[in-house]
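hiii, so i know i said id send this last week but things got crazy w the move. better late than never?? heres the sequnce for the chain we talked about at the cafe, plus the structure i predicted for it. fair warning i was half asleep when i ran it
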Amino acid sequence: MSWQDNYQLWQKADLTTDLRQDLTAMAHDEAALQEAFTQPLEFGTAGMRGVMGPGINALNIYTVQQATEGLACFMDQLSAEKKAAGVAISYDSRYHSQAFAFVAAGVLGAHGIKSYVFDSLRPTPELSFAVRHLHTYAGIMITASHNPKQYNGYKIYGPDGGQMPPEEVGQIVAYIEKVTDLFQIKSMRQNELRDAHLLQLVGEDVDQAYLAQLATVTVQPELIKKVAADFTLVYSPLHGTGKMLYERVFRQAGLTKIQVVPEQAILDPEFATTPFPNPEFPKAFELAEALGKKTGADLLIATDPDADRLGAAVRQPNGDYHLLTGNQIAALMVNYLLEAYQAQGKLPADGVIVKSIVSSEFPAKVAAHYNIETRNVLTGFKYIGEQIEQMEVTGQGHFLFGFEESYGYLVKSFVRDKDAMQAAVLLAEVAAYYREKGLTMYDGLQSLYREFGHFQERTVSFDFEGLAGQEKMAQVMTEFRQNPVSAVADVAVTRVEDYQAQTATLADGTVSKLALPKANVLKYYLADETWIAVRPSGTEPKIKLYFGVVADSEAAGLQKLDRYQAALSPRLQ
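okay and structure toks below
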């Protein structure tokens, strides 16, 4: 169907008041209409994410119903036992998130599938935990993570609590594509669901079980107790779900002096204090820094709106705060964990840390110092979850830590997605470890640099908005493959990994096979230990350039990063 045909269907439909108003406002904007009605919102292995509004290329109750109809039809083909296990559903603080959650429950109910819906918003990692704790077959999380206020999203989780694997997602997508009329999907109202025992509210019962598991994350609980009286932590939930549990989580770990950023502890879908509620951005920490200087805080922590990502800033000797990168946080955590386990005689010989291919080699070098294996996986925490499942099923390997450079970490496997609550507890313990030594975490980071080399990374994003942007993104990746990079800033490329072709090519032309699944990623290794990756985002209209260098000093590392970025960026503009 043409975009005009789709538009006419929506004009005739009995829309909700807000969608009708938005559609009327778009009536004379042909570009906006084409964007909304030309092609459906893509449902990938990470679910779907998009701007809220009318149309097939937006998040609204009708596209949420369509996605859920696909999941329900998929579950109809399962065994009676698996279908009866039901679906756990949670949601964040964004506009319409709660409504979308109950819309999904209504569609599932029409298929005789029971939903376990949280009584109020909860973090993404708690949804992952709930799938495992309640033994449901699947989970749905309504969230757009760290995106701006106009976005929302829909993520599906599998029986292990990890994001649904690609094979199952492919089958769900096939069912989604069979839904030709978004306005004729059968659904049930909440009271009907309750009467039919197809909807159960959950909340404190799951909270207590999750908190009990979080209590196991600390390795040396006595460390925090020793410094608790003088250790101040500032926390910001960035207007999101971290507010629901943070105080209980920190106090359970032994922290007593917790200061929350009051302006950002308001559950505000406008994200009024920070238009980009992303803990990797310095602006998101401005209020936390001001409060930290007022209270003399040792550590600042912020979690994104669905509390799966964590950012942190540490106090420097002069009292200012240094915002850590995701890779630096991971290196500090890995070093602390492995040193503590070794001291306790609990470091397993078959221990494994797992990271994405675009994350730093810094934590890997730290792990190698302790004779611990590092496994690389594609970007997406589901691949880390798959490694955990594989280790548990085969008995080969002992999971110790997983991370992605984009501020996602996992310490214990009772969750199968990145978990900012776990990370917050462990990071506070790391800070306490250094505090007892009379040092800051910033001092600790410098010590790791002196021992292992000065690793630095940078990620640069290039935006490609709209339908034309998607075409341009495809052209850029094609151009990289048709015109291979043989040198960057006069430094030779020694190895090229093309994850779409699943090949690794050396400078002499030797080609070998990559073991990881197909993905639209190119990674280059240079003669000076630098690596560079080019990857389209799976959730945003962006292509990202990743750089990783190692040097003798911070200044030398920055010079390298600047030089390589200047050499490659023109190919994406």
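btw The mean pLDDT is 95. thought thatd interest u
miss u guys!!
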